[in-house]
Design goal:
Blueprint (H helix, E strand, L loop, with lengths): L7 H9 L4 E5 L13 H14 L5 E2 L25 H18 L4 E5 L11 H22 L12 H6 L8 E5 L3 H4 L9 H10 L24 H19 L5
Amino acid sequence: MRYEMMLPYQIREAIEKNWPVVLPLGVLEYHGEHLAVGMDTLAVVRLLAILEDEMDLVVLPPFYYGAASYAVAPPEGNGSLHVDAGALQPFAQAMFTGLLRIGFRNVHVFIHHQTENFAAGMPTDLAFRFAARQAIFAFLEKERGEGWWGNEAMADYYAQQAGGSDPFNWIKAHPLMTADIIGKFPFDHAAQGETSLMLALCPEGVEMGRLTDEHWYTRSARDASAELGGRGRELILMHMREVLRPASG
């Protein structure tokens, strides 16, 4: 269910039933001459559209304005729109604080941009991950007071953590493609893997006739296919289902 289309009674039901609330996070970045600049975010959006038909889910409006960087190409005439991570962090913290105040306790962020080494992180996901921690710390201190963790009422904190009820799990960030998926499907920039995913998920964002050999990173895109993209789509959907479904599901 799209958050912007929800009525208050539906929001209250989602809170009561602890539905997953998902933010598609990405960038607007040059992906060669043959792919839409929103590829990284569009992939998340289109996959969530599939999951909406399978499970109770709240999908937040996507955020496209991440730290694209100009590492691939300069922005002039190419379309990369870079917002510095320093500007993203306060925005993200305010947004997460707002979601916590509404009552959501099962928030997830999915990102595809620069996630080949997600444990180390890159500017966009790090800004949002740090903002999530800051928002949770501030929210807990305001709600429970200083010393909340050291209070006797938290004596079972580690048992809660083992049971999955740790408040620091209220907001989680995930790469769209895990290391396991990357081992089974090409991870690249605008090449065979990403072009195939777009052919399967968002074919209107692909114009194969515009593909050239000008850039090393796009040359394998000539081997892209909707069939290969479909295999990647299914691998990613399995990962997303595992993340978003309740443990008892």
